[in-house]
Amino acid sequence: MFDFLKKKPVPAPGSTPPAPSATTPPASAPAEAPVRTGFSPDDLARAFTDFQAEKAARIEAEKAQAREAVRETLGSSLLARSLGGLFSGNPRLDDDLLDEIETALISADVGVTATTELLGRLRKRMKVREFVDAHALHQALRADLLAILAPIAKPLVLETENKPFVILTVGVNGVGKTTTIGKLARRFQLDGHTLMLAAGDTFRAAAVEQLKVWGERNNVTVIAQGQNADAASVSFDALQAAKSRGFDILIADTAGRLHTQAGLMAELGKIRRVLGKLDPAAPHEVLMVIDGTTGQNAISQLRAFHQAVNVTGLVVTKLDGSAKGGVLFALAREFGIPIRYIGLGEKLEDLRIFDPEAFVDALLPAAPSR
Ligand SMILES: Nc1nc2c(ncn2[C@@H]2O[C@H](COP(=O)(O)OP(=O)(O)OP(=O)(O)O)[C@@H](O)[C@H]2O)c(=O)[nH]1
Ligand SMILES: [Mg+2]
Predict the structure, then answer these.
(1) Is 252:210 a contact under the CB 8 Å cutoff?
(2) Residue 336: is its pLDDT beyond 60?
Protein backbone atom coordinates (compact mmCIF):
# COMPACT_ATOMS: atom_id res chain seq x y z
CA MET A 1 0.00 0.00 0.00
CA PHE A 2 2.40 2.71 1.19
CA ASP A 3 5.61 1.68 -0.55
CA PHE A 4 7.84 4.24 1.09
CA LEU A 5 7.00 2.66 4.46
CA LYS A 6 9.19 -0.27 3.41
CA LYS A 7 12.41 1.81 3.35
CA LYS A 8 15.28 1.02 5.67
CA PRO A 9 15.14 2.73 9.04
CA VAL A 10 17.44 5.66 9.72
CA PRO A 11 20.39 4.72 11.96
CA ALA A 12 20.10 6.19 15.43
CA PRO A 13 21.97 9.46 15.77
CA GLY A 14 25.56 8.94 16.90
CA SER A 15 25.48 5.18 16.23
CA THR A 16 28.54 3.68 14.62
CA PRO A 17 28.19 2.19 11.17
CA PRO A 18 28.35 -1.61 11.09
CA ALA A 19 31.82 -3.15 10.78
CA PRO A 20 32.61 -4.35 7.28
CA SER A 21 31.76 -8.03 6.93
CA ALA A 22 33.43 -10.63 4.74
CA THR A 23 30.94 -9.78 1.98
CA THR A 24 31.62 -6.04 2.08
CA PRO A 25 33.00 -4.95 -1.32
CA PRO A 26 36.62 -3.74 -1.32
CA ALA A 27 37.17 -0.03 -0.78
CA SER A 28 38.14 0.30 -4.43
CA ALA A 29 34.67 -0.82 -5.64
CA PRO A 30 32.61 1.98 -7.20
CA ALA A 31 30.47 3.71 -4.58
CA GLU A 32 26.74 2.85 -4.80
CA ALA A 33 24.21 5.64 -5.17
CA PRO A 34 23.21 6.75 -1.64
CA VAL A 35 20.03 4.98 -0.44
CA ARG A 36 17.39 7.36 0.81
CA THR A 37 16.34 6.16 4.24
CA GLY A 38 13.72 7.07 6.84
CA PHE A 39 10.33 8.80 6.63
CA SER A 40 10.18 12.52 6.24
CA PRO A 41 7.31 14.38 7.91
CA ASP A 42 5.91 14.86 4.40
CA ASP A 43 5.96 11.09 3.81
CA LEU A 44 4.10 10.47 7.05
CA ALA A 45 1.57 13.20 6.36
CA ARG A 46 0.96 11.76 2.90
CA ALA A 47 0.57 8.24 4.29
CA PHE A 48 -1.94 9.47 6.83
CA THR A 49 -3.93 11.40 4.22
CA ASP A 50 -3.89 8.39 1.86
CA PHE A 51 -5.05 6.10 4.65
CA GLN A 52 -7.89 8.43 5.63
CA ALA A 53 -8.94 8.83 2.01
CA GLU A 54 -8.93 5.05 1.50
CA LYS A 55 -10.99 4.52 4.63
CA ALA A 56 -13.50 7.21 3.63
CA ALA A 57 -13.78 5.69 0.14
CA ARG A 58 -14.39 2.23 1.65
CA ILE A 59 -17.14 3.60 3.92
CA GLU A 60 -18.75 5.47 1.03
CA ALA A 61 -18.63 2.39 -1.20
CA GLU A 62 -20.28 0.29 1.52
CA LYS A 63 -22.96 2.94 2.01
CA ALA A 64 -23.71 3.00 -1.71
CA GLN A 65 -23.94 -0.79 -1.85
CA ALA A 66 -26.22 -0.83 1.20
CA ARG A 67 -28.43 1.84 -0.36
CA GLU A 68 -28.80 -0.23 -3.52
CA ALA A 69 -29.51 -3.42 -1.54
CA VAL A 70 -32.17 -1.67 0.57
CA ARG A 71 -33.79 -0.18 -2.54
CA GLU A 72 -33.88 -3.54 -4.30
CA THR A 73 -35.19 -5.44 -1.29
CA LEU A 74 -37.64 -2.99 0.26
CA GLY A 75 -38.76 -1.49 -3.03
CA SER A 76 -41.01 -4.54 -3.45
CA SER A 77 -42.35 -4.58 0.12
CA LEU A 78 -46.07 -4.14 0.75
CA LEU A 79 -45.59 -0.61 2.06
CA ALA A 80 -43.59 0.48 -0.99
CA ARG A 81 -46.07 -1.08 -3.37
CA SER A 82 -49.15 0.41 -1.76
CA LEU A 83 -47.70 3.90 -1.27
CA GLY A 84 -46.17 3.83 -4.76
CA GLY A 85 -49.55 2.83 -6.17
CA LEU A 86 -51.30 5.70 -4.39
CA PHE A 87 -49.03 8.38 -5.76
CA SER A 88 -48.36 6.96 -9.20
CA GLY A 89 -51.50 8.20 -10.94
CA ASN A 90 -51.33 11.89 -9.97
CA PRO A 91 -54.16 11.53 -7.43
CA ARG A 92 -56.56 14.21 -6.22
CA LEU A 93 -55.62 15.93 -2.99
CA ASP A 94 -58.59 15.02 -0.81
CA ASP A 95 -59.70 13.12 2.30
CA ASP A 96 -59.92 9.87 0.33
CA LEU A 97 -56.21 10.07 -0.38
CA LEU A 98 -55.49 10.52 3.32
CA ASP A 99 -57.71 7.54 4.18
CA GLU A 100 -55.90 5.40 1.66
CA ILE A 101 -52.52 6.42 3.06
CA GLU A 102 -53.77 5.52 6.52
CA THR A 103 -54.87 2.06 5.38
CA ALA A 104 -51.56 1.49 3.59
CA LEU A 105 -49.55 2.38 6.71
CA ILE A 106 -51.64 0.28 9.09
CA SER A 107 -51.62 -2.74 6.76
CA ALA A 108 -47.84 -2.56 6.50
CA ASP A 109 -47.21 -2.78 10.27
CA VAL A 110 -46.46 0.91 10.85
CA GLY A 111 -48.72 0.62 13.89
CA VAL A 112 -51.71 2.59 15.09
CA THR A 113 -49.81 5.14 17.20
CA ALA A 114 -47.34 6.16 14.51
CA THR A 115 -49.99 6.11 11.79
CA THR A 116 -52.45 8.24 13.79
CA GLU A 117 -49.75 10.80 14.46
CA LEU A 118 -48.60 10.91 10.85
CA LEU A 119 -52.11 11.29 9.52
CA GLY A 120 -53.09 13.86 12.15
CA ARG A 121 -50.22 16.07 11.04
CA LEU A 122 -50.96 15.67 7.33
CA ARG A 123 -54.69 16.39 7.87
CA LYS A 124 -53.95 19.59 9.76
CA ARG A 125 -51.62 20.84 7.07
CA MET A 126 -54.05 19.93 4.32
CA LYS A 127 -56.85 21.84 6.09
CA VAL A 128 -54.82 25.06 6.15
CA ARG A 129 -54.09 24.51 2.45
CA GLU A 130 -50.39 24.01 2.91
CA PHE A 131 -50.22 21.49 0.06
CA VAL A 132 -50.78 22.75 -3.46
CA ASP A 133 -51.22 19.22 -4.82
CA ALA A 134 -50.76 15.53 -3.99
CA HIS A 135 -47.08 15.82 -4.89
CA ALA A 136 -46.56 18.31 -2.05
CA LEU A 137 -48.34 15.95 0.34
CA HIS A 138 -46.11 13.12 -0.90
CA GLN A 139 -43.04 15.18 -0.07
CA ALA A 140 -44.42 15.97 3.39
CA LEU A 141 -45.12 12.28 4.07
CA ARG A 142 -41.55 11.39 3.10
CA ALA A 143 -40.17 14.03 5.46
CA ASP A 144 -42.44 12.84 8.30
CA LEU A 145 -41.46 9.19 7.81
CA LEU A 146 -37.80 10.17 7.91
CA ALA A 147 -38.37 12.26 11.03
CA ILE A 148 -39.61 9.14 12.87
CA LEU A 149 -36.55 7.08 11.92
CA ALA A 150 -33.75 9.65 12.04
CA PRO A 151 -33.46 9.77 15.87
CA ILE A 152 -32.97 6.00 16.15
CA ALA A 153 -30.28 5.72 13.47
CA LYS A 154 -27.28 5.49 15.76
CA PRO A 155 -24.71 3.01 14.48
CA LEU A 156 -23.03 0.80 17.05
CA VAL A 157 -19.81 2.37 18.30
CA LEU A 158 -17.31 -0.16 19.62
CA GLU A 159 -15.46 1.37 22.54
CA THR A 160 -12.50 -0.95 22.89
CA GLU A 161 -10.45 1.12 25.32
CA ASN A 162 -11.49 -1.09 28.22
CA LYS A 163 -11.48 -4.43 26.47
CA PRO A 164 -13.49 -6.38 25.73
CA PHE A 165 -16.61 -4.64 24.41
CA VAL A 166 -19.33 -7.11 25.38
CA ILE A 167 -22.40 -7.64 23.19
CA LEU A 168 -25.22 -9.74 24.61
CA THR A 169 -27.57 -10.99 21.91
CA VAL A 170 -31.20 -11.69 22.82
CA GLY A 171 -34.53 -12.35 21.14
CA VAL A 172 -37.33 -14.87 20.63
CA ASN A 173 -36.80 -18.21 18.88
CA GLY A 174 -35.59 -18.34 15.32
CA VAL A 175 -35.37 -14.59 14.69
CA GLY A 176 -31.77 -14.80 13.44
CA LYS A 177 -29.61 -14.24 16.55
CA THR A 178 -26.90 -16.79 15.77
CA THR A 179 -26.81 -15.89 12.09
CA THR A 180 -26.48 -12.21 13.00
CA ILE A 181 -23.61 -13.01 15.37
CA GLY A 182 -21.80 -14.72 12.49
CA LYS A 183 -22.35 -11.72 10.23
CA LEU A 184 -21.24 -9.28 12.93
CA ALA A 185 -18.17 -11.32 13.77
CA ARG A 186 -17.09 -11.24 10.13
CA ARG A 187 -17.70 -7.50 9.92
CA PHE A 188 -15.72 -6.80 13.09
CA GLN A 189 -12.87 -9.04 11.92
CA LEU A 190 -12.65 -7.15 8.62
CA ASP A 191 -12.46 -3.93 10.63
CA GLY A 192 -9.36 -5.34 12.32
CA HIS A 193 -10.85 -6.29 15.71
CA THR A 194 -10.10 -9.47 17.62
CA LEU A 195 -13.12 -11.24 19.00
CA MET A 196 -14.45 -14.21 20.88
CA LEU A 197 -17.89 -15.80 20.97
CA ALA A 198 -19.76 -17.30 23.92
CA ALA A 199 -22.07 -20.23 23.11
CA GLY A 200 -24.73 -19.15 25.59
CA ASP A 201 -27.56 -21.06 23.90
CA THR A 202 -27.23 -24.15 26.06
CA PHE A 203 -30.76 -25.45 25.45
CA ARG A 204 -29.86 -27.42 22.36
CA ALA A 205 -26.62 -29.31 21.67
CA ALA A 206 -27.04 -28.32 18.04
CA ALA A 207 -26.92 -24.64 18.98
CA VAL A 208 -23.51 -24.98 20.62
CA GLU A 209 -22.29 -26.99 17.62
CA GLN A 210 -23.66 -24.38 15.19
CA LEU A 211 -21.56 -21.67 16.78
CA LYS A 212 -18.47 -23.88 17.22
CA VAL A 213 -18.46 -24.94 13.57
CA TRP A 214 -18.90 -21.36 12.48
CA GLY A 215 -16.04 -20.29 14.78
CA GLU A 216 -13.69 -22.96 13.46
CA ARG A 217 -14.44 -22.05 9.88
CA ASN A 218 -13.78 -18.39 10.48
CA ASN A 219 -10.93 -18.69 12.92
CA VAL A 220 -12.87 -17.23 15.82
CA THR A 221 -12.51 -18.67 19.34
CA VAL A 222 -15.78 -19.96 20.78
CA ILE A 223 -16.18 -20.58 24.51
CA ALA A 224 -18.69 -23.36 25.20
CA GLN A 225 -19.63 -25.73 28.00
CA GLY A 226 -22.00 -28.02 26.17
CA GLN A 227 -25.70 -28.67 26.41
CA ASN A 228 -27.60 -27.84 29.60
CA ALA A 229 -24.72 -25.85 31.07
CA ASP A 230 -25.73 -22.68 32.90
CA ALA A 231 -25.87 -19.91 30.30
CA ALA A 232 -24.76 -17.31 32.84
CA SER A 233 -21.73 -19.41 33.74
CA VAL A 234 -20.76 -19.80 30.04
CA SER A 235 -20.93 -16.03 29.59
CA PHE A 236 -18.92 -15.45 32.78
CA ASP A 237 -16.17 -17.88 31.68
CA ALA A 238 -16.09 -16.33 28.24
CA LEU A 239 -15.72 -12.81 29.58
CA GLN A 240 -12.94 -13.95 31.90
CA ALA A 241 -11.14 -15.63 28.98
CA ALA A 242 -11.65 -12.65 26.64
CA LYS A 243 -10.34 -10.28 29.31
CA SER A 244 -7.24 -12.29 30.12
CA ARG A 245 -6.43 -12.86 26.45
CA GLY A 246 -6.93 -9.22 25.54
CA PHE A 247 -9.70 -9.64 22.94
CA ASP A 248 -11.40 -6.48 21.69
CA ILE A 249 -14.94 -7.86 21.53
CA LEU A 250 -16.99 -10.65 23.10
CA ILE A 251 -20.34 -11.57 21.57
CA ALA A 252 -22.57 -13.80 23.69
CA ASP A 253 -25.30 -15.86 22.06
CA THR A 254 -28.38 -16.83 24.06
CA ALA A 255 -31.18 -19.31 23.53
CA GLY A 256 -34.30 -17.99 21.85
CA ARG A 257 -37.14 -17.56 24.33
CA LEU A 258 -40.72 -16.43 24.26
CA HIS A 259 -41.11 -13.03 25.85
CA THR A 260 -44.03 -14.39 27.84
CA GLN A 261 -41.95 -17.04 29.65
CA ALA A 262 -41.13 -15.30 32.92
CA GLY A 263 -38.56 -17.84 34.12
CA LEU A 264 -36.56 -17.68 30.91
CA MET A 265 -36.72 -13.90 30.83
CA ALA A 266 -35.37 -13.80 34.41
CA GLU A 267 -32.45 -15.96 33.27
CA LEU A 268 -31.41 -13.17 30.90
CA GLY A 269 -31.28 -10.81 33.87
CA LYS A 270 -28.95 -13.26 35.59
CA ILE A 271 -26.59 -13.38 32.58
CA ARG A 272 -26.49 -9.61 32.67
CA ARG A 273 -25.71 -9.47 36.39
CA VAL A 274 -23.01 -12.13 36.18
CA LEU A 275 -21.22 -10.26 33.35
CA GLY A 276 -21.42 -7.11 35.47
CA LYS A 277 -19.44 -8.81 38.23
CA LEU A 278 -16.38 -8.95 35.99
CA ASP A 279 -16.93 -5.57 34.39
CA PRO A 280 -19.55 -3.22 35.85
CA ALA A 281 -20.07 -1.68 32.39
CA ALA A 282 -20.76 -5.07 30.74
CA PRO A 283 -22.69 -5.87 28.67
CA HIS A 284 -21.90 -2.69 26.78
CA GLU A 285 -24.57 -3.49 24.22
CA VAL A 286 -27.70 -5.61 24.66
CA LEU A 287 -28.60 -6.31 21.07
CA MET A 288 -32.13 -7.57 20.51
CA VAL A 289 -32.80 -9.32 17.23
CA ILE A 290 -36.34 -8.94 15.88
CA ASP A 291 -37.83 -10.77 12.91
CA GLY A 292 -39.13 -8.09 10.51
CA THR A 293 -42.07 -10.27 9.52
CA THR A 294 -43.39 -10.45 13.10
CA GLY A 295 -45.75 -7.50 12.76
CA GLN A 296 -47.13 -5.75 15.82
CA ASN A 297 -46.06 -8.62 18.08
CA ALA A 298 -42.58 -7.08 17.81
CA ILE A 299 -43.79 -4.33 20.14
CA SER A 300 -44.73 -6.70 22.98
CA GLN A 301 -41.52 -8.67 22.41
CA LEU A 302 -39.35 -5.60 22.75
CA ARG A 303 -41.30 -4.33 25.77
CA ALA A 304 -40.72 -7.60 27.65
CA PHE A 305 -37.04 -7.95 26.71
CA HIS A 306 -36.37 -4.32 27.51
CA GLN A 307 -37.90 -4.75 30.94
CA ALA A 308 -35.87 -7.90 31.62
CA VAL A 309 -32.48 -6.88 30.30
CA ASN A 310 -32.46 -3.23 29.21
CA VAL A 311 -32.10 -3.45 25.43
CA THR A 312 -29.68 -0.86 23.97
CA GLY A 313 -29.81 -1.68 20.26
CA LEU A 314 -31.89 -3.56 17.69
CA VAL A 315 -31.30 -5.65 14.61
CA VAL A 316 -34.38 -6.13 12.42
CA THR A 317 -33.88 -9.22 10.25
CA LYS A 318 -35.69 -10.91 7.36
CA LEU A 319 -36.76 -7.68 5.69
CA ASP A 320 -36.17 -9.57 2.43
CA GLY A 321 -38.94 -12.08 2.99
CA SER A 322 -42.60 -11.39 3.55
CA ALA A 323 -41.85 -8.33 5.70
CA LYS A 324 -44.31 -5.55 5.06
CA GLY A 325 -41.65 -2.94 5.76
CA GLY A 326 -43.40 -0.81 8.37
CA VAL A 327 -42.48 -2.37 11.71
CA LEU A 328 -39.39 -0.18 12.09
CA PHE A 329 -41.61 2.91 12.34
CA ALA A 330 -43.73 1.29 15.05
CA LEU A 331 -40.62 0.29 17.02
CA ALA A 332 -39.00 3.70 16.60
CA ARG A 333 -42.11 5.58 17.65
CA GLU A 334 -42.81 3.33 20.65
CA PHE A 335 -39.33 2.94 22.16
CA GLY A 336 -36.74 5.22 20.58
CA ILE A 337 -34.14 2.44 20.90
CA PRO A 338 -31.47 2.65 18.15
CA ILE A 339 -31.77 0.29 15.22
CA ARG A 340 -28.15 -0.69 14.56
CA TYR A 341 -28.49 -3.08 11.61
CA ILE A 342 -31.09 -4.55 9.29
CA GLY A 343 -30.98 -8.05 7.80
CA LEU A 344 -31.78 -8.31 4.12
CA GLY A 345 -30.95 -11.98 3.58
CA GLU A 346 -28.94 -14.96 4.74
CA LYS A 347 -25.55 -14.08 3.24
CA LEU A 348 -22.79 -12.44 5.27
CA GLU A 349 -23.04 -9.13 3.43
CA ASP A 350 -26.81 -9.00 3.91
CA LEU A 351 -26.47 -7.39 7.33
CA ARG A 352 -26.46 -3.66 6.66
CA ILE A 353 -25.92 -0.64 8.88
CA PHE A 354 -29.33 0.99 9.24
CA ASP A 355 -29.59 4.09 7.06
CA PRO A 356 -32.97 5.84 7.52
CA GLU A 357 -32.70 7.90 4.34
CA ALA A 358 -32.06 4.84 2.21
CA PHE A 359 -34.93 3.11 3.98
CA VAL A 360 -37.46 5.89 3.31
CA ASP A 361 -36.19 6.31 -0.26
CA ALA A 362 -36.85 2.62 -0.88
CA LEU A 363 -40.38 2.77 0.55
CA LEU A 364 -41.42 6.06 -0.99
CA PRO A 365 -39.02 7.28 -3.69
CA ALA A 366 -38.59 11.04 -3.99
CA ALA A 367 -39.94 11.35 -7.52
CA PRO A 368 -43.32 9.66 -7.77
CA SER A 369 -43.50 7.43 -10.82
CA ARG A 370 -46.14 8.75 -13.18
N1 LIG B 1 -34.27 -14.40 4.68
C2 LIG B 1 -33.56 -14.15 5.79
N3 LIG B 1 -33.29 -15.16 6.63
C4 LIG B 1 -32.56 -14.89 7.74
C5 LIG B 1 -32.10 -13.58 8.04
N6 LIG B 1 -31.42 -13.64 9.22
C7 LIG B 1 -31.48 -14.94 9.62
N8 LIG B 1 -32.17 -15.69 8.74
C9 LIG B 1 -32.49 -17.13 8.80
O10 LIG B 1 -33.32 -17.40 9.92
C11 LIG B 1 -33.12 -18.75 10.37
C12 LIG B 1 -32.91 -18.75 11.88
O13 LIG B 1 -31.67 -18.14 12.14
P14 LIG B 1 -30.86 -18.37 13.50
O15 LIG B 1 -29.71 -17.45 13.44
O16 LIG B 1 -30.58 -19.80 13.76
O17 LIG B 1 -31.92 -17.84 14.55
P18 LIG B 1 -31.79 -17.81 16.13
O19 LIG B 1 -32.46 -16.59 16.61
O20 LIG B 1 -30.37 -17.99 16.53
O21 LIG B 1 -32.66 -19.10 16.51
P22 LIG B 1 -32.71 -19.84 17.93
O23 LIG B 1 -31.33 -19.94 18.42
O24 LIG B 1 -33.33 -21.16 17.61
O25 LIG B 1 -33.59 -19.01 18.80
C26 LIG B 1 -31.92 -19.27 9.59
O27 LIG B 1 -32.40 -20.09 8.56
C28 LIG B 1 -31.28 -18.01 9.02
O29 LIG B 1 -30.59 -18.25 7.83
C30 LIG B 1 -32.41 -12.52 7.12
O31 LIG B 1 -32.07 -11.35 7.28
N32 LIG B 1 -33.14 -12.86 6.01
MG1 LIG C 1 -29.47 -19.36 17.79
Answers:
(1) no
(2) yes
Q: Which is the closest atom of ligand 1 to the Cα of 207? A: 23
**Cα(150) to centroid(ligand 1), Å:** 27
Tell me the pTM: 0.86
Span from the CA of 218 to the centroid of ligand 2 (angstroms): 17
Phi-psi sector, 228: left (phi>0), alpha (psi -120 to 50), beta: left
Do residues 250 and 242 touch, judged by C-beta distance below 8 A? yes
Residue 317, ligand 1, Cβ within 6 A: yes
Residue 290 bridge partners (DSSP): 316
- Which residues have a Cβ under 8 Å from the Cβ of 59 and sit 6 or more positions away? none
- Which tens digit of pLDDT belongs to each residue from 54-109? 878 888 888 899 999 999 999 989 999 999 999 887 889 999 999 999 999 999 99
- Find all residues with CB under 8 Å of 74, minimum gap 6, and list them: 80, 319, 325, 359, 362, 363
183 lines ligand 1 (CB under 6 A): no
C-alpha 68 to ligand 2 mean position (Å):
29
Nearest 5°: CA angle at 63, between 61 and 64? Answer: 65
Contact present, 301 and 172 (Cβ < 8 Å)? yes
Nearest atom of ligand 1 to the alpha carbon of 175: 19
303 pLDDT tier (thresholds 50, 70, 90): very high
The more confident residue out of 42 and 15 is: 42
| Ligand approaching nearest to the C-alpha of 181 | 1
